[in-house]
# Entry
Amino acid sequence: ADGGQPLWIDGWVKLLGGTPSIQLVVDTRGVSLIDSHKGPNVLLYGKLLVDGKVSLSGPINNLSIKGGVTLRTGTSLHYIYKNATLVSTDRLAEVVTFTDFTASMPSVEPKRGWSGSALNMNLQVSVEPSVQLKVQLGASDSNAMTLQGGGILNAQLVPGTGFRLSGRYVVSSGELIVNIPLLHVHTMTVR
# Structure
């Protein structure tokens, strides 16, 4: 672990003789999980300091993850969402529409779920008030959101229902930078 802080792992992993399975407890205090810089193909960078106790148990194809983690003071993470684009819409374009009734109905492909493996996760995520998070919308810094704040969130991932994040997060400061083509760059500040 970074800075001489311990990362304790206790338990076992079974790979042979039946269904591969795991029974592990990971315990950490003040560990730096991410400490990286911005680069050409880097989507998540910055510093992530955590305390936590998490258990991983069950067969590999139906793994259960439970416990809690704390994002500590000194955490400053940046995420680049490259596929984000702000689009202005022309609301008058839909005033008159033309329909071609000779065209056949399009076939709808059924959505396929993730087959083969299931992951059950229930984590309590505590965020200390000085933690800074930044989401960059697109490749440039012209559209971005920066938040500082803290709270307690519950992150759940259940097969078949998807990911759910609930709880309370209090923003103490922040900034939203939006580059709208006709208005140029506009900055909104949270105080």
